[in-house]
From TrEMBL, chains A, B:
Belongs to the PhoU family. GO terms for cellular component: cytoplasm. Homodimer. GO terms for biological process: intracellular phosphate ion homeostasis; negative regulation of phosphate metabolic process; phosphate ion transport. SUPFAM superfamilies: PhoU-like (SSF109755). It comes from Litchfieldella anticariensis (strain DSM 16096 / CECT 5854 / CIP 108499 / LMG 22089 / FP35). This is Phosphate-specific transport system accessory protein PhoU. Residues 28-114, 131-216 form the PhoU domain. The lineage of its organism: Bacteria, Pseudomonadati, Pseudomonadota, Gammaproteobacteria, Oceanospirillales.
Amino acid sequence: MDITSETHSQHISKQFNHELEELKTHLMAMGGLVERQIQEAVSALLDGDSRLAEHVRDNDKAVNDLQIKIDDECTRVLARRQPAASDLRLVLAVIRATSDLERIGDEASKIARNALALTEGGNGSKGFVEVRHISEHVRKMLRDALTAFARFDIDLALAVVHEDDAVDSEYTSAMRSLMTFMMEDPRSITSVLSVMWILRALERIGDHANNLAEYVIYLVKGLDIRHIDPDELDEDALKR
Amino acid sequence: MDITSETHSQHISKQFNHELEELKTHLMAMGGLVERQIQEAVSALLDGDSRLAEHVRDNDKAVNDLQIKIDDECTRVLARRQPAASDLRLVLAVIRATSDLERIGDEASKIARNALALTEGGNGSKGFVEVRHISEHVRKMLRDALTAFARFDIDLALAVVHEDDAVDSEYTSAMRSLMTFMMEDPRSITSVLSVMWILRALERIGDHANNLAEYVIYLVKGLDIRHIDPDELDEDALKR
């Protein structure tokens, strides 16, 4: 290779790395946006703030636009750079991740719509403590999954995967207590159902954060753990 | 190009086409499996067949295994063949499609689990007519979306996209009548909630079938319509 073509190929590789970094940066921006959507949707519920709920609902378009934009960038990188090995895994992980973030955005919209219904109904606040608690839990999972993605941090990704079981059991117990409340006070059925949909949306957000963490393990280790029980993972092998 | 290398490149291109065909074939097999999972889960509910429900629940692993296998094949095609243009779009569409089919499988499992709860509870059959009706509707959407994928059939894909609104309004009306029933007979709350979860799972299956149809349009036309309102699509332009 002569000096000119070496410089040329260094230039290409620098440009390529820059494009991969950009993909990650844009994914993080999308992650930050959906995290804010969750936070604002839950605040709208807890504070009975219908304008904030409407804002979240209307802002879902921005999330969708980001997905289209990032997926487009990924397709262009695949077509032009034809990445292999870990670069290919990064692009595929970003494509999968935008799909989960987009669905988290949808769930945040659902929370906002149910918050609106509850605000208009002027009902009690049964289940709000659980909503607050679980929403903080899944937002932390989402933040950690994104950080793990940005840093290729296997330990943090594994921690998120383990966290999902805790969210599931908090969800189950909250649903059970809401069901009991409904039976005791049938007039509350409509409003309690709205809170149940909100809890279910939060539980789904936990699942998506868990998926994001699994993509981190895939992209760093080339190992697809999507359908392995977290308790059966050989973590020492993953951390090696 | 001399004759040997021409034969060689023809051989490669034949082999490549064969690999792409295989991806489609495996996707169709996965689609057939999840369609059967929905059908059996709903039959288990309607016939109170707890063994069939358990079978569906246990069979979810087969769906998951297929996803991993097909995704693996896609990654290998991307790494070795470095496809461009419509070939690249096909591989990306298959990756997206396996994700939706896997989630349809999850929803079928949820239906089976709720069918089990209902069978054990020995409750009435409130909402079963709606479940049967909506399940037939979304199964047809899924079948049509898969056929559209196999045949690159834009018209059929567009028909599926339009069908989703009909399912959503059937779902909303079924949910409303179940809510009324709950208020009239609070002792039914537990069992009616299970039927509600089943309806919601079916509605989600409709969404995923809709996604599959959108990927067909993406792969044939290179156009991402995921976040465009079906009523605002310029269909004549798409069919050109």
